[in-house]
Amino acid sequence: MLGIDVSNWQGDIQPLLEIHRPGHVCVRLSTETWASQRAIAVQQLRTVQAANIPASGYPWCYWNLDPVRHTQDAISVAESSGVPLTITWFDAEDDTYAAPHTVIPWLHAAVNEAQRLGYRAGIYTRAQWWRDFTNDTHEFSSLPLW
Question: Whole-model pTM?
Answer without folding.
Answer: 0.92
